[in-house]
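Quick review question:
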């Protein structure tokens, strides 16, 4: 039935939802079980059955979905419409539902996001362009596509990102590009999970737990962005999921999805890259981009090792600035003092990561440990650099220790 195609533009609360609301808000086992059946997969099975004019099979699939996720309002909507189809034609989804227009719109948006993203899963042979290089001890990277309301998990497979899972998410009520406290937007950028908060120590609003991010990071701060409390977290027990744009800025997952992700991440190591739209490239293009970032940093290393001020200075942008308010003219001489007494130093870079920073600018963020040997002196420092493409040249616009 072509009618199900309308699920991408119309979905609401069915009479069955009203019945669900009268039930206790106890969470069903499936809704806190990371091994529960994939709701998007079941939703697509309903779609396929209706497309094949098999109403009975579609009914069976949607019944299974509601049984597995009794607080999934979108599933109750579709169940109600399918029950109605047994008695009369249904011209639009939610034909038998009584709900406020804004609630109907929320569920339409969720249906559209779930079905579109499930049908447009990334080609496993393609790689998100934002991931250029992971450290050997970074087991995975998380990439969020705000436009698709989707979170992708990539495994570090011998240095190459490999897609291992994707999940529906909800983001800020007012979209992305967070600028200030209380704007109810989700930030875009490269972040890291800083801790793990158990649900037992949080209000039930956060479900089984939360994974705080280091927003605002140094790039946010240098650009005047503020706010706090940006987390990955779950859902309260009386709900299964939210509309695509419904949080105060956090990235919100269903409870089984959150539990899957929480079990695999490494605190302080797992990067979370949030983009408006994730660009995927083939591995040839990805390797070329990766090698370019590696060469940028290697050229800088060689220039540092030369202890030639002009060569080193050529790596830095005239727009360079620090958190303390220094520009290049005031910052560079201070740095020069630290290596003025170097004689044939040896500089080694290890544990290097490179990411293309999301946003309108051509920006690469590189993090590494710099080990310097100068005679009998040895030192090691963890650094982060932001490389910006200015005209035809890439230069460092911000550098800090981490």
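Suggested answer, residue by residue:
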């Amino acid at each position: 039935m072509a009618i199900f195609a309308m699920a991408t533009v119309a979905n609401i609360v069915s009479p069955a939802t009203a019945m669900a609301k009268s039930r206790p808000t106890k969470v069903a086992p499936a809704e806190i079980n990371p091994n529960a059946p994939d709701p998007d997969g079941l939703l697509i099975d309903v779609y396929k059955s209706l497309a094949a004019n098999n109403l009975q099979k579609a009914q069976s699939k949607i019944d299974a979905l509601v049984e597995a996720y009794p607080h999934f309002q979108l599933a109750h909507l579709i169940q109600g419409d399918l029950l109605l189809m047994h008695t009369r034609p249904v011209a639009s989804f939610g034909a038998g539902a009584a709900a406020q227009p804004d609630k109907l719109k929320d569920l339409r948006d969720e249906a559209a996001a779930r079905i579109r993203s499930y049908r447009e899963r990334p080609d496993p042979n393609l790689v998100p362009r934002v991931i250029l290089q992971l450290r050997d001890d970074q087991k995975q990277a998380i990439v969020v596509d705000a436009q698709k309301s989707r979170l992708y998990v990539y495994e570090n497979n011998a240095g190459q990102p490999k897609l291992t899972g994707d999940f529906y998410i909800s983001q800020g009520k007012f979209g992305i590009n967070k600028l200030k406290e209380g704007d109810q937007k989700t930030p875009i950028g490269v972040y890291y999970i800083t801790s793990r908060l158990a649900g037992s120590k949080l209000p039930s609003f956060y479900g089984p737990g939360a994974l705080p991010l280091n927003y605002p990071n140094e790039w946010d701060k240098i650009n005047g962005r503020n706010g706090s409390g940006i987390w990955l977290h779950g859902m309260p027990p009386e709900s299964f999921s939210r509309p695509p744009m419904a949080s105060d800025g956090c990235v919100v997952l269903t409870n089984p999805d959150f539990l899957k992700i929480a079990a695999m991440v490494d605190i302080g190591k797992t990067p979370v890259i949030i983009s408006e739209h994730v660009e995927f490239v083939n591995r040839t293009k990805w390797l070329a981009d990766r090698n370019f970032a590696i060469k940028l940093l290697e050229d800088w290393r060689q220039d540092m090792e030369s202890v030639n001020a002009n060569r080193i200075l050529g790596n830095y942008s005239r727009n360079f600035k620090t958190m303390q308010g220094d520009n290049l003219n005031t910052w560079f001489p201070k740095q020069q003092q630290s290596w003025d007494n170097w004689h044939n130093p040896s500089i080694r870079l290890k544990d290097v990561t490179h990411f293309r920073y999301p946003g309108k600018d051509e920006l690469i963020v590189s993090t590494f440990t710099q080990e310097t040997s100068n005679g009998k002196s040895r030192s090691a420092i963890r650094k982060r650099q932001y490389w910006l493409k200015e005209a035809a040249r890439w230069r460092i616009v911000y550098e800090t220790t981490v």
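Why it works: The chain is about 30% helix and 25% strand. The first strand starts at residue 126 and ends at 128.
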